[in-house]
Amino acid sequence: MTQPDPAELADALLAGDRRGLARAITLVESTRDSDRAHAARLLDLLAERSASSTIRIGLTGTPGVGKSTLIESLGMHLLGLGHRVAVLAVDPTSSRNRGSILGDKTRMPTLSADDRAFIRPSPSGGSLGGVARRTGAVRDLCEAAGYDIVLIETVGVGQSEGAVAELVDAFCLLVAPGGGDELQGVKRGVLELADLVCVNKADGPTAQLAVGTAADYRGALHLVRPKWTGRPTTVLTASALERSGVTELWDALLAHLDALGPDVVGRQRGDQAVTAFDAEVRERLLGLALSGVDTERLAELGADVRSGDRS
Ligand code: GDP
Fold first, then answer.
1. Atom 26 (ligand 1) nearest CA
2. Phi first, then psi: what are they for 88, rounded to 5°?
């Protein structure tokens, strides 16, 4: 296949051409060395030319808590408000096909059928850092293509949440109604990352329990380091299935970003970009260093260390 021309791709993307976006994503997700320079050129071209305001939201929660149902409800609400929505995923395990694949379109049938939404599964393969970095690039492409809201989901099992928090303006933890045990299952570190906690399935027989769970979380949040000094994390309830509380959820996220103000949100994005840059530099340097290494000799040394023949 011929190499796509970065300038041509950038034009297609900025014109809102979905096929152009898909081709651009294929390029930035490629791990081939020959594609890397083209991808970097494309991203630079877009960085110069796209400036409109966008909102980046992260969403995590254990499997079955209702992430895709919520994204479907929230996404439709956002389209109703006149936004265009991209849904991305960070899941380094997706290639192993464990359970539901994040970003799978069949999980969000109504949203994925709408032209104003763009849903993309997690890039497969590679380390968490690599997957997150490529997702960050895909996020930038989606924004350039006119998707002004980007939702990034990840499974809340204690690995990828930190990586997603580094890609978004605000991070939402979705939890299920339950007793104290439920709360214990949520890692303290994840609570510390959350800007908002939403207790889902606040409907039918679990409606009351959800209210109690929300109170439990408010109590628990007092015990963790606040993410933003002087700003308690908002806890609310919703039913993604019945689409109640979804408007309130969005309004609470906007209110949070509003309270932080554009300067703080902009600084956070800058910090995140530098963190990603540092990680990229380290990875490339490590790659360069290792490329000159005698791997056979290294393996021999490793064997000696294993057997105790060498310290
Ligand atoms: P995910 O694995 O976190 O993406 O969870 P899903 O969105 O696939 O939802 C898992 C199950 O919970 C499905 O059977 C949903 O219909 C159900 N579910 C999701 N949200 C709600 C809700 O608000 N209320 C109720 N009662 N069920 C829900």
1. 201
2. -120, 165
- CA 245–ligand 1 middle distance (angstroms): 15
CB atoms within 10 A of CB 300: 12
Cβ-proximal residues to 202 (8 Å cutoff; 6+ apart), any chain: 177, 210, 211, 237, 238, 239, 244, 245
Residue 287 Cα to ligand 1 middle (Å)? 42
Q: How far apart are CA 228 and CA 255, in angstroms?
A: 14
Q: Would you call 294 helix, strand, or coil by DSSP? A: coil
Write out the chain's pLDDT in tens, 311 residues. Answer: 566 788 999 999 988 888 999 999 999 988 787 888 899 899 989 887 766 689 999 999 988 999 999 999 999 999 999 999 999 988 877 554 444 456 566 788 899 999 999 998 887 777 888 888 889 999 999 999 999 999 999 987 777 899 999 999 999 999 999 876 666 667 778 889 999 999 999 999 999 999 999 999 999 898 888 888 888 899 999 999 999 999 999 999 999 999 999 999 999 999 999 999 998 899 889 888 888 889 899 999 999 999 999 99
Name every protein residue with a CB atom under 6 angstroms from any ligand 1 atom: 61, 63-69, 100, 107, 200-201, 203-204, 239-241
Ligand 1: nearest atom to the Cα of 65: 3
Residue written as token pair 């960050």: 136
The length of the chain in residues reads 311
Whether 193 and 215 have beta carbons less than 8 Å apart is answered as no
**How far is the centre of ligand 1, averaged over its atoms, from the C-alpha of 200 (Å)?**
8
Distance 150 CA to ligand 1 centre (A): 21
Predicted TM-score (pTM) of this structure: 0.90
The answer to whether 238 and 244 are in contact (CB under 8 A) is yes
Give the strand pairing for 196-199 and 117-119. Answer: unpaired
Beta strands 234-237 and 196-199 are parallel
Token pair for residue 197? 């906690």
